[in-house]
## 1
Amino acid sequence: MQAYCGDDAVAVERRIDGLLKQLTLEEKTGLTRGGFLDGGLWLAPGLAARGIPPLHLIDGPRGVSAIAGNATAFPVGMARGATFDPELEQRIGERIGLETRAVGGSVILAPTMNVLRHPRWGRSQETYGEDPFHLGAMATAFVAGAQRHVLATAKHYAANSIEDTRVTVDVTVDERTLREVYLPHFRRVVREGQVGSVMTAYNSVNGAFCSQSPHLVREILKGEWEFAGFAVSDWLWGMHDTVAAAHAGLDLEMPVESVYGASLRAAVEAGEVDEATVDEMVRRLLRPRFCRRLDVDPPVPDPAALETAEAYALAQEVAERSMVLLANPAGLLPLDRAALAAIVVTGPLADVENLGDTGSSNVAPTSVVTALAGIAAAAGPVVVTHLPAPPASTEDQAAIAAADAVVVVVGLTSRDEGEGQIGAGDRNSLALPEGQAQWILDVAALSDRVVVVVEGGGALTMDDFLGQVEAVLLAWYPGVRGGAALARVLFGEVNPSGRLPLSFPRADADLPPFDNAAPSVTYGYFHGYRHLDHEGIAPLFPFGFGLAYTGYARANLRLEGATLRAGDVLRATVDVTNTGSRAGRETVQLYVGAVASTVTPRSVRELRGFAQVELQPGETKPVTLEVPVDDLAFYDAAAGGFRVAPGTYLVEVGSSSRDLPLAAEVTVAP
Ligand code: BGC
């Protein structure tokens, strides 16, 4: 059992043993269902007379939810995924954990860590990207930070990646795909991250709702992975059958009693559920309360700890680190204040506080720096003119034609993508919302100094305007200080280092089909870059891609040991050089593919390691990446376990899934 109590573990379990002997069945079952809201927080009631404190749960992945009041809105998860920096993500987790405690919360309902199977998913913005290895690294880092202050909740377990039908859709997925694509990151956040709770998804998998899937919850999560925390349902529509959920191992129903509670008591009294099963639920629900000492040291609201200068500075730092420079062929960026007289800022999102979805992840900060405000504040002597509509008048057209640079801010908002039921749901296409491409083209017809800033939480197609503009910068939903961060990137105080944590296709049809209306869907083995590689389709921008205001070169790939065995660690070292004239941060990516594999299907390559290096102009540094050979295992469904197939593997190192200039083979011996 992976306990997370440290030295107190034995004493805590004994205390729970004692309580289980005293509690009545009614008291026990009362602990297994929510008590709705308490002061803007979701309540899992305690039992004051028994010395059992309540749990207060609150969303979410980009900061403390608006239902609890004002808090710092950080860049969304997808933006943070683009930093490829788990250490930075740990600091975000820690800050969100601290703000959670500061509103009286003991559980943060984050991270969202579902595989982005398709970027039309309405909650794309909340997760970290499409790759399970990268997702596992980022989510585990978030949890390590958050759990310094509160419990974290890994969600939504599992295979949740459609919004419009989220509460009904059945996902058919074979065991190997489930284990290799949809679960490895959850495993990591449980085993390595010791996450305190896991939220089951609304959808069903292979015919069983996740909240009542013995395979997902009892066998895999609690059995194989030895999860010591509690499994909580997703809200309102997550549970359907008391007996099935109890047998499957679901511990807590939220936010109110609709299945558990009275009916769980009745099911025990009728002999349909053993009292021992309820005892196990209660044990898992009490463990975090006592491990976290919530009885003697409950979170006390502390408004002074919310929206601090440090939190806003961190939000800005992450936004700066997350922005991805997608195109800059003529080197228009960075803008040089000394050489500019006038900038025009236009586009539908130029002056919009664009923080992301207004569903459960909604955060309400007291102030937001928009793109326009950020650019205006940082422009110094440069005259900034805002044109709030496409250039129709001769005056506006003249302003654009005369400007030294035109920044067009376009993209998605909470009207375009978000949570099902309470938000915009899935997108219908990967194109920019109607009229935006035309706005860009109207500007591009008047100027050859056009920078397009794209906001949003997922991939967009861009062939309709890409060739007509001089630069494209992806800013995501950049949080409270997004505009300030954007200005620092545009003016070159920050050298862009964000990398795409998802593939940008040329056309919707280049990705696997996404049917957000069907009652059931089948998830195949390939999605994202693995699909594009397998099908031989060129992406618009590949997974891992991002430009900088400098260049990087990689050379001298050396692998330690040519022959490895299961249990060994593959060590690859590469020299990285900054070939440009600005200091920068490069992300070195390592992919591994099985050569002539007898296991089918198999990805051409999969991300197995990444690391960052900061380099001064002209500087070279060695970077070493380590890959446990066991990470190369495939799931052998017939044998019911992971197994490393002996044979040859190609190790490729570079700057994106499609720019891998260094390669070497290794042999894995039987
Ligand atoms: C969402 C969860 C969220 C919960 C509580 C649900 O609708 O799917 O992610 O944590 O609501 O707000």
## 2
Amino acid sequence: MKAAVLYENFQPLVVENLELEGPKDHEVLIKLTASGVCHSDLHYIKGDREHPMPVVLGHEGAGVVEETGSGVSYVQTGDHVVLSFVPTCGQCNYCVRGRQNLCDARYQLRGKMLDGTTRLRSGSQEIHHFNGLSTFGEYAVVPEDSLVKIREDAPLDRVALIGCGVPTGVGAVINTAKVKPGSSVVVLGAGGVGLNVVQGAVLAGAESIIAVDIYGNKLENALQFGATHMVDASGEDVIERVRDITRGDMADYAFEVIGSTAAINQALATTKRGGTTVVVGVTPAGAELTIDPDFLHLDRVLMGCTYGSCYPRADMPMLIDMYMARRLKLDELISATLKLEDINSAFEALDQGEVARTIIRY
Ligand code: COD
Ligand code: ZN
């Protein structure tokens, strides 16, 4: 099958034919319909985060079950699925306490399948998997626990976005911060994930939603998603603008969706006493955060957040129902749809701030 392989940091992905071994125990072969191109993949290309190489990246996909390995009971051939980049085993300490996004299984993967081996090869060379998914290929063998069965009338080339960007952003608002109606919310970074923080804030009934970005096109997108104000961080003083917009109060909540320590500090400084800052972005490995402890002293809360604190098998079908009922925007997130051969131009456009999400359609 055709897949895009990262051999070296900062090098273009190589689109080539790989051998994909069939599914083993509790694994499933998926024929992918589409994959979103997320900034986290770009972090691995640039080496902000380390990963065993070579690797097929991609963690935002949807498709159809082609074949099931032994012991698989959750799905059968023909089922439509979204892939979760966290497998949820249902049995570890985190899963049984309702914290499925923190499932132990996620930390057993390390570039391989859960049994510690790979299914991907290029000739004699072993190719690594990414989060057990590797959606930048026509097919993927994934753990059964990474699958979320979905309704068949949902368009797979749209609901692929339910695999990462949407639950990460919407979930940060609804599950992690639990934003209350009438709140003021600052969203730093109006990219693919940030736009979902904006639409999460709309769903939560926030009164003012202040989008912050360095590109005008991103801010325009944010308005379309329900932001009430925009701040251009390339030319404006973000903290002073938030002070003006909130009539001196500052915000109840701030979400950092950029992945920089400077932005985390900026987020903290835009919140009022007792306000909450949620860090959605992951900073480059080795980054250190220095904050003024006085901020926290005044009942402020600083929270981390992964995968929008979601339970994939409960939240993803719900998000899809909301999309089908036109209460959640997905189509508007998609700036372009490309073939796998054009994946490097998708990353270039993401890096240049030109797009919200690009979909690779197989
Ligand atoms: N001030 C304001 N906005 C900025 C600044 C700045 N100084 N610098 C960049 N931005 C804007 C960009 O213009 C862009 O619009 C936005 O920040 C980032 O958006 P994208 O579309 O490039 O990236 P996303 O939305 O796909 O991903 C952003 C994350 C921060 C979520 C991502 O990079 C990340 O850190 N992911 C890890 C967290 C995670 O949960 N990972 C699992 C899978 S994503
Ligand atoms: Zn992602």
